[in-house]
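ok, trying the design again with the full structure, not the truncated one.
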């Protein structure tokens, strides 16, 4: 990529938050290596055993609340501000359900897999900020229904959020960057090929080659807290 990109689409995954102490999914010892996602992250699992599913997300929510953003989150927040100051845009699309991008200072974050610090009422659909544990004894603050609150995250078999805005941002980008994602979960895993078919240069920043590594024009391998700030600095951001 030569010159300053004006409109950058950044896709982040669990690897960006790994150095903040939040577990990834598919690395050795990752969440899905230890737990069966079909028993914890599907609507069917929640219907069959809501307490086990809520406990799993309570544990993860406590981890998010205790975690701090790292240098990768901060570099993206800085780059967003610098792009905007130049009249450009950095569109930050994350698969992460934590709020570390926001706490690092990113202003606009599109959470395609939802947000763990929000709860949704299955009765009325209202979404409420939620930092505490969630139980079937909780009432919906909006409609008062009891026992119908779930984490506002996307489970397997459900539609990711904000897909129209994401597609539009991807089509408008002049650079696509994926950071800390294994390329195993669609539709996010398909964005690199979509970008390439639109003629947009692509770069992967990851600890190791992802499942999609051969689809990228460029790659930088290393911990996100080091590789990403260096890459953004090379772009003048
Ligand atoms: P994965 O756990 O599948 O992949 C994380 C990637 O980050 C791997 O390729 C690691 O090599 C890399 N990685 C680990 N530590 C890193 C570091 N310090 N710096 C840079 N890279 C590092 O996580 P995702 O790709 O985000 O969805 O997973 C996608 C979705 O699958 C998640 O959003 C979640 C999960 O199931 C749902 O729950 C719906």
């Amino acid at each position: 990529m030569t010159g300053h990109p004006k409109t950058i689409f950044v896709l982040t995954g669990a690897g960006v938050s790994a150095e903040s102490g939040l577990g990834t999914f598919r690395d050795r010892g990752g969440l899905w290596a230890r737990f069966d996602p079909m028993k914890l992250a599907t609507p069917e699992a929640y219907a069959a055993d809501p307490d086990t599913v809520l406990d799993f997300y309570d544990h993860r929510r406590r981890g998010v609340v205790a975690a701090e953003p790292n240098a990768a989150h901060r570099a993206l927040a800085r780059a967003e501000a610098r792009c905007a100051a130049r009249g450009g845009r950095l569109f930050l699309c994350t698969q992460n359900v934590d709020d570390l991008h926001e706490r690092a200072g990113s202003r606009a974050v599109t959470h395609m897999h939802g947000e763990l610090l929000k709860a949704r009422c299955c009765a009325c659909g209202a979404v409420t900020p939620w930092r505490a544990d969630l139980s079937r004894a909780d009432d919906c603050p909006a409609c008062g229904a009891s026992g119908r609150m779930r984490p506002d995250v996307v489970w397997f078999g459900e539609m990711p959020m904000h897909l129209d805005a994401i597609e539009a941002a991807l089509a408008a980008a002049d650079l696509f960057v994926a950071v800390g994602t294994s390329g195993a979960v669609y539709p996010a895993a398909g964005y690199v090929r979509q970008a390439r078919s639109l003629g947009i240069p692509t770069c992967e920043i990851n600890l190791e080659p992802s499942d999609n590594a051969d689809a990228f024009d460029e790659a930088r391998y290393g911990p996100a807290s080091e590789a990403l700030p260096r890459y953004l600095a090379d772009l003048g951001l």
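Keeping the full-length input from now on. Residues 13-15, 18-19, 24-27, 30, 37, 41, 95, 113, 154, 180-182, 184-185, 206-208, 210, 223-224 surround 2'-O-acetyl adenosine-5-diphosphoribose (CB under 6 Å).
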